[in-house]
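Same chain as my last thread, 653 residues:
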Amino acid sequence: MSTKTPRKRLLAARDRGWERLDSVRETVFRVAFGDRIGWTLFLGSLVFYALYWRVDVFIIDTFAIVNALVSVADGSLAIQTVAFGPDHGATPGVYVSDGSLYGRNYGQIVLSLPALVVLEAISAFADLRIALTGLWCVGVAGVSRNLGGLLGRERVGTLVGCSIAALLFVAGVLSATQLPTGVEPLLALQFTTMVAAALCPVVVYRLLTRFHDRRIGAAAGVSTLGLATVAFWAPIPKRHAFVALFALVAAYCFARARERPVGLERRWRAASYAAVGALAWVSAPDALALFVVLAPLDLLFARRNRPLDLAVIGGVFTLSLVPFFVTNAVISGNPLVPPRMLQSADAAGVTADAVLGGGEGGSAGSGSETVASDSGGGSGTGGSTSESKQGTTTGESAPDRLAVVVSLVAGVVSSVTAAFGVLLDQFTRAVETLNAERLWHVFVRSGTIPGVDYSQTGGETVELTLLESAPLLAALFAAPVALARRLAAGLDHRGPRTGVDCLAVGFGIVLTLLYLPRLPLHSTITVRYLAPMTPLAVYGVFRLAVVRRAVSIHPERFVGGLSAGTVGGLTFAAVGLTGVTAGTGMQTHAVVNLAVAVALGCWALLASSHPEGGYDRHGAILLGVAVAAMVVLVLTSGLAYFATERLFVLPYK
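reply #2:
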């Protein structure tokens, strides 16, 4: 018999419960962030992005997503209330199906629901702006404490961080005014997008740490944190941060599936496809682009492709697509037809008044029929639904059920074929429009580009090329030299490093071909359509031997170049660019960043031609300056050029 008293048994059970809770917490922490450096990168990213977190709609098609979020929170996929934007509701990104209006990116919308619930709960008990300011100050203290711990000065870091956070919070409380009522859905979308962007440095860090060491991983993570092509869009609820994150997760799982010793290969392979399935719920075209790169490389680099392996992978991939299929089936009647393939409300001339105005008095039915007859695919979808309901009521014979199954299979095959046909057509158009001038204006120099309509930006040339936005990527000029050396050395061509390298290159090429016919465009700012491939490009930069050698030997010079470049760049912007227009400011950064890119590219080529070294100190400084140039661009654009008459979450501006 047990000699324990009921009190002792209760205490023992409580202790076991705490131990299990700690175990779960450690597991979640390890899966999400890896270690303390990953957590610091994540927290630091959120603190950085919140500096220019604006409570407004920067891109007009955000209205569609935020209105859809409001309706989904109320239990409807269709837009029931136009809470944001013009009353007509027919903004870009709104589509018509069976007489109802729908948004897009429903995966992003559903992922934002927890943030919406939390924000609404906070606003019910406290001032939302002060609460968010307090959380940001806690983040500042946490980053300082973690940095102190990583440098062996945790107590000093904690004291400094808490002191700074306390002063910032007091200043925020003294200067804060209330946020407009009803902005919680917009803030929820923005916060979720920032979380997705903040996880990108973490995945880059973890991937390069597995391939090399923590020093290289940390430097790459910091570089991704300041990567302008992602950081600029972090507080703006677009899909690009999610696409970048899921592509990185697929690459990370791809690498883990090919590590030795062999153990969980099948699970990691399936997880990489699950990332593609989750991405399809956010943006189907980008998911298809990632899939056409991942699938052949996965089969090529796999140790074995047994029927059981392929069955498990296919099953997990199919399950990950279920939310995408269900959402599409409810909206369009076809599980493989996402909302963005429907007719837009603007093109159909449908307004919210026509669709929602009949809610009182029972006129919604006639409005629905009118829209369905006017939209290209709406009437067909409506007829299909009607027939299905009738068959269910009266009962179907076996031949009828077989005909339905055959029809469904034929529809799925037709939709898949059409999707790949659209992708192939985009690639064909990209090849047809491929020319040196287009590539120059997309990747190298912007300025005033012939044929681009700047009227919608007030005549301001605010868009930058890829190198002007992210000069760090100029180090990739040395990639062909590194590849030639690698081939000559006869290294392992089927290992995880080579596989991820091929995945990064392939995704970059496919994404470029997918969007090149639409570029250059006045509203991409930092070539946002290509932004999802840039974190993998940063991974490629730190896979170069010359870059790794420079950072490993001279980490203090990398940090010094980053610090001095940031302080110097912000000082120059404050003195020389105060009061300038957005176009003048952005083009000034374009020229400066392009100069940094040229210097870094020349160093990378020179250092690659001298494998014995000798230029490592200069390279470490240039790498730090290139990251600083991106940080300065993000902060000045967010706090100055695009800050006129805009309300910030943090009350300091």
